[in-house]
Amino acid sequence: MNKRFLVALCLIVACLAGCSLPPEKPVTKDELYATGIYNFYTIKESPESVLAAINREGEVILDAKYRDRPVFIKILALSSGLQVHVIEK
Length: 89
Description:
Keywords: Lipoprotein. This is Lipoprotein. By secondary structure, the protein is an alpha+beta fold. It has one domain. Strand 3 (69-78) and strand 4 (81-88) form a beta hairpin. Helices cover 42% and strands 31% of the residues. The chain contains four helices and four strands; from the N terminus they run αααβαβββ. It has a four-stranded antiparallel sheet with strand order 1-2-3-4.
C-alpha cells in the first residue's frame, strides 16, 4: 500500500512541476521588445496580447513567419528574464 501511495505522490509532483506558473514580477513591453522577435519575425498577435498571456500563464507559443517560412516562437518568463525558443514547423 505504501508503494502505491509513493508512486501516486511522485506522479502528482511530476505533473505539478511541469505546469507553467506566472512570473514573479510582470513582464514589461520593453523586455518583450528587447528579445527582438518583432524585428525578425512576422507575428500576428499584438504585443499587448502576448504580454497578457505571458503575465497570466508564464509562457506563450506564437505562430510566426521568418522569411516566408512558418515557425513557432515559444517565450518563457523566467526569473532571469525572457527566454525565446524558435521551432520550425
